[in-house]
Design a protein that fits this description.
Layout lengths: L1 H6 L2 E6 L2 E4 L5 H20 L4 E2 L2 E2 L8 H25 L9 H18 L1 H4 L26 H10 L24 H14 L8 H11 L1 H4 L25 H10 L14 H14 L4
Antiparallel strand pairs: 1-2, 3-4
Helix pairs in contact: 3-4, 3-11, 4-11, 6-11, 7-8, 7-10
The structure holds heme C (2 copies).
Length: 286
Amino acid sequence: MSDKKQDVETTGHEWDGIQEFNNPLPRWWLWTFYATIIWGIGYTIAYPAWPLVEGATRGVLGYSTRTEVVAEIDRFAEMNAGVKAELAAMDANEIPNNEAVYNYAIQSGRATFATFCSQCHGSGADGIAAGNGYPNLLDDDWLWGGTLDAIVTTVAHGIRNEDDMDARYSEMPAFGDDYLSDDEISNVVAYIGSLSGMEFSGDATAGETVYLDNCSACHLEDASGDQMQGAPNLSDAIWLYGSSEEAIEHSVRVGPYGVMPSWTTRLDEAEIKGVAAYVHQLGGGE
Ligand code: HEC
Ligand code: HEC
């Protein structure tokens, strides 16, 4: 043991009698080590590597994950160019009758929805929170119509926005501005609440008269709503602006004015039809 110790050179370092041998490194290890150095240098020449002030060295191969992604996107776009053109040209209500186009529409529509619509309507299209003015698109209750054609129009031009001449438009008066007395408001709220089984503080019977005189032109006599004017159904249990007595009274006083942006300048024809098809099948479209 002690003999062998003498054969090997030491580095001359010694701590508490412990000496450090100066064994040569194994050949295989050393060559592997050199190989990794060469490979490393080669890599930094070939691929983007060294950070500089403005970006990094690009590498002689010109590789970048960004160009890869762009190439992938182009590949998909090319693959789908045919079906996309078909979708753009197709009459909206016909889309579900063509399986290939319909599948593509829903797939692309799902992605469009996640990017452009979910911030207001919720990623699950449920309107995020009940009564916040952003409609739940999962139900079959449509303010402006639930046919594919109607949804395409809503999405393309938006609602009550000032950027698009063709935006859907209507305006409920603010009945709190001297049109109706506090009692009349309280009574009409009790009346429309009673239509979906709710009991509020006002006199619903007196409210019916107020309703027929002031509200039926838009919400219709049976309060089922008028999609031509975007006037909601007031006889069901779905409330865009909330279902409490206070919330409904607030709607009657101020006249709600929900605004949705126009998309014609930001989405192309196929994207609009795609996202409309997606929304249509979510909500048990008409
Ligand atoms: C800035 C918020 C916002 C964004 C973004 C938005 N919406 Fe809307 N959307 C609204 C509001 C508010 C309404 C309800 C307007 C009203 O009260 O009539 C609405 C209404 C709708 C309706 C009508 C529902 C019905 O019952 O008739 C559809 C369909 C719709 N949105 C689809 C979309 C799609 C698809 C997108 C994405 C391309 C989108 N929205 C993006 C705010 C938004
Ligand atoms: C000129 C047409 C018009 C008249 C008249 C009108 N409304 Fe409306 N009303 C609307 C429209 C349009 C909306 C939807 C506004 C929006 O989406 O932002 C609405 C929304 C409402 C809402 C909110 C519904 C919800 O789901 O949250 C209530 C409540 C309501 N109206 C009650 C009344 C009552 C009560 C009267 C009569 C005193 C009346 N409205 C008269 C057009 C009208």
